[in-house]
């Protein structure tokens, strides 16, 4: 099936972001995409100073638009970190998924908050404003089961392993790596998660805006179960298309059967919630 990743140029105007995002979703659907993904923080600039201002409840304005366009196009739509979600006085970094009938299929709250300090390069602390999610998020399609993470979640190999154990064949990480971590680890982490678990990994980033307070790396990417990069964007706004070949996935798992060769008598990773 065809997967489309929308690397959106995000402005400070929420209504413009929503309008452009929905237009690109329609374009991707018209070109045959069955599953379409938007980037992390697609409806607002990325930064702790913006989260409260742009926060919405779910359902709300942004998720209603996503539901409508998913139904209109009869596709599966992953809403990136569509919004900073407000719930019970707390803010979450939240990704929503809508089915071809417009129904909400999954809601993933970012599990691992991005609190880092690389001296002289970047310091960022999501926990100043955001609360962490506490659950895994998967959804079924007629094609395969899909697991969700958001950006920093990709660094935690155990999370991807759990998704693989639960039958996911595609992991999607809306993310906004920066100009320090992006060139160093963006592709490396995706290839690692794909090879370790013999599944497809897709990441979808905002387009790069050199004038923004937080500059995203871009380079939305798809990696196959062999660890090969099969689709990759540059830094500009674009839509990346690729075919997810589940027959190839099955062949790779048969050729190198690591999933059945794990020594569960010696080690294991388990889901606690």
UniProtKB/TrEMBL annotation:
It comes from the Eukaryota. It is an enzyme of class 3 (hydrolase). Its EC number is 3.5.1.3. The keyword Hydrolase applies. The keyword Iron-sulfur does not apply. GO terms for molecular function: omega-amidase activity. Keywords: Hydrolase. Transmembrane segments: none annotated. PROSITE patterns: CN_HYDROLASE. Residues 1-246 form the CN hydrolase domain. It catalyses: 2-oxosuccinamate + H2O = oxaloacetate + NH4(+); 2-oxoglutaramate + H2O = 2-oxoglutarate + NH4(+). CDD domains: nit. InterPro entries: C-N_Hydrolase (IPR003010), C-N_Hydrolase_sf (IPR036526), Nit1/2_C-N_Hydrolase (IPR045254). Pfam families: CN_hydrolase. GO terms for cellular component: mitochondrion. GO terms for biological process: asparagine metabolic process; glutamine metabolic process; oxaloacetate metabolic process. Belongs to the carbon-nitrogen hydrolase superfamily. NIT1/NIT2 family. This is omega-amidase. The lineage of its organism: Eukaryota, Metazoa, Chordata, Craniata, Vertebrata.
């Amino acid at each position: 099936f065809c997967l489309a990743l929308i690397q959106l140029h995000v402005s400070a105007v929420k209504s413009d972001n929503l309008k452009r995002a929905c237009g690109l979703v329609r374009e991707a659907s018209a070109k045959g995409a069955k599953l379409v993904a938007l980037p992390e923080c697609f409806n607002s600039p990325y930064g702790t100073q913006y989260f409260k201002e742009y926060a919405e409840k779910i359902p709300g304005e942004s998720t209603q638009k996503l539901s409508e366009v998913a139904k209109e196009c009869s596709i599966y739509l992953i809403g990136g970190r569509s919004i900073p979600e407000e719930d019970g006085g707390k803010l979450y970094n939240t990704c929503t998924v809508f089915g071809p009938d417009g129904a909400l299929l999954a809601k993933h709250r970012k599990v691992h908050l991005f609190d880092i300090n690389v001296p002289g390069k970047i310091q960022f602390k999501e926990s100043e404003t955001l609360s962490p999610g506490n659950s895994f998020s998967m959804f079924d399609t007629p094609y395969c089961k899909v697991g969700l993470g958001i950006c920093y979640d990709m660094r935690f190999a155990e999370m991807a392993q759990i998704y693989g154990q639960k039958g996911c064949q595609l992991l999607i990480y809306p993310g906004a790596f920066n100009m320090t971590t992006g060139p160093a680890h963006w592709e490396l982490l995706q290839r690692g998660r794909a090879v370790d678990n013999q599944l497809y990994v897709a990441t979808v980033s905002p387009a790069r805006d050199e004038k923004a307070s937080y500059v995203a790396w871009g380079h939305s990417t798809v990696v196959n179960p062999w660890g090969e990069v099969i689709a990759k964007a540059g830094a500009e706004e674009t839509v990346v298309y690729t075919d997810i070949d589940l027959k190839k996935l099955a062949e790779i798992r048969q050729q190198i059967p690591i999933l059945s060769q794990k020594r569960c008598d010696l080690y294991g990773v388990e889901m606690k919630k």
